[in-house]
TrEMBL record:
Alphabetic keyword roster: Hydrolase, Magnesium, Metal-binding
Cofactor(s), by name: Mg(2+)
A Pfam family per the record: Inositol_P
Reaction catalyzed: a myo-inositol phosphate + H2O = myo-inositol + phosphate
Domain of life, source organism: Bacteria
Protein name: Inositol-1-monophosphatase
Keyword Hydrolase tagged: yes
Enzymatic class: hydrolase
Gene coding for it: suhB
Entry similarity comment: Belongs to the inositol monophosphatase superfamily.
UniProt binding sites for Mg(2+): 79, 95, 97-98, 222
Listed GO MF terms: inositol monophosphate 1-phosphatase activity; metal ion binding
Length: 274
């Protein structure tokens, strides 16, 4: 079904909608931040370190309202308000603020992520940074862009000279496992970065700012837009639902420039998986 429906859709129109709506949500998130993080409406989810603010909720409400106007009748799955979980057909996937802890602290590496998916596969998407105003976007088969600049992954060919991004879970037990992996992987790469926003890490691979990125335990809204942007920039992708067991662990996403793809996978296996 994916190929047939995807071919019938105007993915560039979907990209335009994603950019428009995500940009409006980013403006809202930025303007309400001070009130959103100081008025006592900071709650927690899976752990005390996993926060959600009034800004997250307001941004998602705006996205849903705008999509209802621009794309009536299409399903929406969001981090804060849930929604349609069935993969069939066209559905929008929104993370109203990816990097909420950064948002809470005023660290300017957070973003609004919005993607259109068909049968569970992204066909258009945008990632917008409220603090900087940068707009990342892509449409299936039409390339990836930062503003008007077309993106291309780095030409890295040596893992020992590669800069790799990752992220950590909120639960202590998983963090210990991930820290052990990082400790081993550090000996095989140039360095490792942990920014706190999966969507922006994926965009960083697309721009060549990172040579690769991996993380375990992401939700669909974390990667739906960023993974498409990276893929359209030439990255190799391993999404969190692989058909075969490759030793990287269930729920692991891997996004890497092709020149070091095999080497990074091998290094992660030696390090105990993501």
């Amino acid at each position: 079904m994916f190929v047939g429906l995807a071919n019938e859709l105007d993915v560039e129109t979907l990209r335009t909608v994603a950019v428009q709506v995500a940009s409006q949500a980013a403006d809202l998130a930025r303007t309400v931040r001070d009130e959103a993080v100081t008025d006592g409406t900071v709650d927690t989810k899976s752990a005390e370190t996993d926060v959600v603010t009034a800004g997250d909720r307001a941004a998602e409400r705006l996205v849903r309202e705008r999509l209802a106007e621009l794309r009536p009748g299409e399903g929406v799955l969001g981090e804060e308000e849930g929604g349609e979980h069935a993969l069939d057909g066209l559905r929008w996937v929104v993370d109203p603020i990816d990097g909420t802890v950064n948002y809470l602290y005023g660290f300017p590496w957070y973003a609004v992520s919005l993607a259109a998916q068909v049968d569970g596969r992204s066909v258009a998407g945008a990632v917008v940074e409220p603090a900087s105003g940068r707009v990342w976007s892509a449409a299936l088969g039409h390339g990836a862009y930062l503003g008007d600049r077309r993106l291309r992954v780095s030409g890295a060919e040596r893992l020992d000279l590669a800069l790799i991004g990752t992220g950590f879970a909120y639960k202590v037990e998983r963090r210990r496992e991930q820290a052990a992996t990082v400790g081993k992987l550090l000996a095989e790469v140039r360095d490792i970065r942990r920014s706190g926003s999966a969507a922006l890490d994926l965009c960083a691979v697309a721009a060549g700012w990172l040579d690769g990125y991996y993380e375990r335990g992401l939700n669909r809204w974390d990667w739906a837009a960023g993974a498409l942007i990276a893929a359209e920039a030439g990255a190799e992708l391993r999404l969190p639902f692989p058909d075969t067991d490759d030793g990287l662990g269930d729920g692991t996403i891997l996004c890497v420039t092709p020149g070091i793809g095999t080497a990074l996978k091998d290094a992660l296996r030696r390090s105990g998986g993501a």
